[in-house]
DNA sequence: TCATTATATCAAAAAATTATTAAGAAGTCC
DNA sequence: GGACTTCTTAATAATTTTTTGATATAATGA
């Protein structure tokens, strides 16, 4: 697993970034196209993705979506200031951070450090008797490990990461199952039940994953 | 056994490196081609290989793979910055460290020291009733030696080195079988079974090498 | 209250993933 | 070359996860 995956087709910017990041002792891997980005990520992973949204082949948007779907890895987006459209806005809102070209390398470094710091603090989320370890993909209740399936874990993770917030069913569904999933919304409620079965003291009277009628669910 | 095997075809760089390293009291042997590198390594061994990836005959890639496959000796790669392609990325990611030409000799020395230090600390991994000795390639369970094949050992090593972390099947496969191996993923699961047979108290109910469904495996 | 709508539950089918087995290929060592 | 171990493959079995559909239960508002 490398620290930073750089996705950027411009040769100059690319080596500039790589040099600076290496000087800061980050390990980096480099992709010059969207496709390569995905294959590199699949093979070696990354703790942070630095993504130029204007790529030659697969556009940055779909790279972004795919990455977010699979691993929820932090993504920092590099973008030109021009033609800021609706689609771009959407992506940026979901990104952990973004920076506009032309950018000051020092500011970029500061942002990256910030993301790592924040994430590190959030790699283990503990709340009440539930502890969720994102990097190890483990969940403990009262110190005892409980096994979770991939979907269950993802769902619980998103809920806990947004403590106190009501998340709509659509939002949860899109995050866990993906935007163009063919599954029914029904599947979500069933998974909510599975979660409650595993983590609630009394699954019949859920205190942790609360139903918000007509909206969705909330972790409290 | 020498301390450092230098693999570099450029005469000047070669003697420069040798001088500096000898000045730091390392013993060195020198190979000016890939073929010679392999034969020298076979004859005298080395604690660390300093490998220029751009060689005249056998390219550095295959030297690297061969070394890694046989002994897993630490390899430090010297590379020019240009044409950083997928293959190179792959090699670099697996390398213990790498440095780009032109390099500062002081930085190189620091890196080499770092590698020796790290390796020394990790030569024996002990966890529960399993003890793994990396330099001897031996494994003990409750003090009794168990024989392991090369692939089995490598797999166990990576798992134990990353205790508690879930390692994806792809990651494990790339590490043990190599990036462009033609083997099937199936091979991995079979080897996992072999490992379990040897180290688990009840192979039917594995406690050490745990399956993480949809992801991979984890040493606990 | 009653009709309506939203969520919960259940169990079984479907899909996906991993485990097991055994046999043959490939490599190693005398 | 023969005996041996290791590695790979392919087929099948076993297991787990995911989805679905039917039905039950609960909340909401006229």
Show the helix and strand layout.
Two copies of one chain form a homodimer.
Chain A: E1 2-7, H1 11-23, E2 28-31, H2 34-44, E3 46-52, H3 60-70, E4 75-80, H4 86-94, E5 97-101, H5 105-122, E6 124-127, E7 130-133, E8 138-141, E9 144-146, H6 150-161, E10 166-168, H7 169-177, H8 186-199, E11 209-212, E12 216-219
Parallel strand pairs in A: 1-2, 1-3, 3-4, 4-5
Antiparallel strand pairs in A: 6-7, 7-8, 8-9, 10-12, 11-12
Helix pairs in contact in A: 2-3, 6-7, 6-8
Chain B binds a DNA duplex (30 and 30 nucleotides) through helix 6 and helix 8.
Task: Explain what the structure shows.
The structure is a homodimer of 220-residue chains. The mean pLDDT of chain A is 82. The longest helix of chain A is centred in the middle third of the chain and has 18 residues, at 105-122. By secondary structure, chain A is of the alpha/beta class. Chain A has helices spanning 11-23, 34-44, 60-70, 86-94, 105-122, 150-161, 169-177, 186-199, and strands spanning 2-7, 28-31, 46-52, 75-80, 97-101, 124-127, 130-133, 138-141, 144-146, 166-168, 209-212, 216-219. Helices cover 44% and strands 25% of the residues of chain A. Chain A has 2 domains: 2-121, Rossmann fold (3-Layer(aba) Sandwich); 149-219, Winged helix-like DNA-binding domain superfamily/Winged helix DNA-binding domain (Arc Repressor Mutant, subunit A), CATH 1.10.10. In chain A, helix 2 (34-44) runs parallel beside helix 3 (60-70), helix 6 packs across helix 7 and helix 6 (150-161) crosses helix 8. In chain A, the strands form 3 sheets. A 5-stranded parallel beta sheet of chain A has the order 2-1-3-4-5, sandwiched between helices. A 4-stranded antiparallel beta sheet of chain A has the order 6-7-8-9. The first copy, chain A, contains 8 helices and 12 strands. The structure holds a DNA duplex (30 and 30 nucleotides).
């Amino acid at each position: 697993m490398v620290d930073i995956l750089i996705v950027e087709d411009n040769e100059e910017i690319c080596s500039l970034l790589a040099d600076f990041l290496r000087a800061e002792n980050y390990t980096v891997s480099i992709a010059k196209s969207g496709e390569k980005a995905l294959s590199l990520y699949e093979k070696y992973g990354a703790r942070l993705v630095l993504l130029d949204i204007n790529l030659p082949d697969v556009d940055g948007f779909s790279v972004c979506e795919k990455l977010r779907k699979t691993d929820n890895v932090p993504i920092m987006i590099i973008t030109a200031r021009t033609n800021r459209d609706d689609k771009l806005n959407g992506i940026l809102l979901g990104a952990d951070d973004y920076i506009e070209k032309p950018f000051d390398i020092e500011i970029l470094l500061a942002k990256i450090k910030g993301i790592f710091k924040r994430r590190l603090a959030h790699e283990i989320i503990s709340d009440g008797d539930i502890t969720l370890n994102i990097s190890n993909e483990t969940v403990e209740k009262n110190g005892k490990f409980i096994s979770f399936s991939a979907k269950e874990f993802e769902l619980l993770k998103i809920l806990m990461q947004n403590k106190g917030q009501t998340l709509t069913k659509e939002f949860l569904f899109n995050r866990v199952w993906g935007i163009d999933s063919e599954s029914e919304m029904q599947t979500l409620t069933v998974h909510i039940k599975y979660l409650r079965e595993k983590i609630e003291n009394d699954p019949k009277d859920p205190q942790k994953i609360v139903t918000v009628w007509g909206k969705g669910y909330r972790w409290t």
